[in-house]
Amino acid sequence: MIRPPINSIETFRRVLAAYRLPRVIVTALELSLFTAMGSGSWSIQKLARTLDVSERGVDILCRNLAMCGLLSKRGKAYRNTPFSATVLNAKHPKYRGAYVELLQSHWADWSRLTRVVRTGSPLERDEPDSPAYRRQFTWAMHHRSSDVAARVAAQLDLGQAETLLDLGGGPGTYAMAFLARSPRLKATLCDRATALDVAKEIAATHRARKRLSYLPLNFMDEALPGQYDVVWYSNVLHIYSAEENQALFRRLYSALSPGGRLIIQDAFLHDREGLYPEEASLFAVSMLLFTPAGNTYSFSETAEWLRAAGFVRIRPLRMKKGTEDWDGGLLEAIRPAGRKARTGPRRS
Fold it and tell me: What is the pLDDT of residues 77-122, one digit of tens each?
């Protein structure tokens, strides 16, 4: 989506004031409002007593939650919608708490953006390398991807591929989706050991779990063993600098069988000036906040890096509108058969 340009005080106010509804929703999450409401119908008086808040406050809060479709209102009573009663309700099996909590935490993180722009360094946080944080983050990525992975896998024809490397695949959500669609396929999930522990828990509920293996590896610093028909590199490109990704592409060339496919999914920029889609530009701010050198990149510059590594037939893969993770977010590159990689010595 391309917004109308900000060229008047009215449009400036409208864009700047967009924080209001997200703040209402964050407050509802902080109060565990959706969990407290469950499947019942609630008066304002009863809800205020249950949450230990003011009647006036929760009345105005619920009115706005109903206005945006997170609650329904009949007369003076409010209740959860099917979405908020499940996805936002911590007592429901379909609760996606890890991802909801991650989004909720971003409110405070983004309020520190000015400091990060001044220093050029990401937020100072102790937890990213802790096992507890990594476990929570991996679950959040599963909650984020569990719907879209099945939709993407349904549209990607892997042909006669027998082996797939899911590089940096975290919870293995995409690997399991590909296995479910391709009975002859075997997949290897490569990520940190803590992420793979979560992946094993998730895979335990899948019929194809015996065709999934695990490779604990820091793939930016360690050699990638073996060769694969397909390498799936999803939502990882943006974590690293341009130089790091280019070095990885040269090593991925060798990790592919001749004729093998590298499929990249990411928040690509598509216009000549590198401004749109809007979500891809805004996602670069997240990388500024949380990574030392991450960014979002244009489709064209990524294709240049791939060509320099020896890949050919670089093209976008089109998904049905509304089914993809990112707008125009899939790119395919082929390792040509019978050609050696243009690489220097591998890092190990």
Answer: 999 999 999 999 999 999 999 999 999 999 999 999 999 999 999 9
The answer, yes or no, to whether residue 218 has pLDDT greater than 80, is yes
0.85 surpassed by pTM: yes
Cis bond leading into 4, ω under 30°? Answer: no
Instruction: Return left, alpha or beta for 153; rule: phi > 0 is left, psi -120 to 50 is alpha, else beta.
Output: alpha
Identify the burial level of 211 via C-beta atoms within 10 angstroms of its C-beta, where 0-12 means exposed, 13-18 middle and 19 or more buried.
Answer: buried
Positive/negative CA dihedral, 47, 52, 56, 62: negative
Q: Exposed (0-12), middle (13-18) or buried (19+): which is 86, by Cβ within 10 Å?
A: middle
59: exposed, middle or buried (C-beta count within 10 Å: 0-12, 13-18, 19+)? middle
Going edge to edge, which strands form the sheet with 77-80? 41-43, 77-80, 71-74
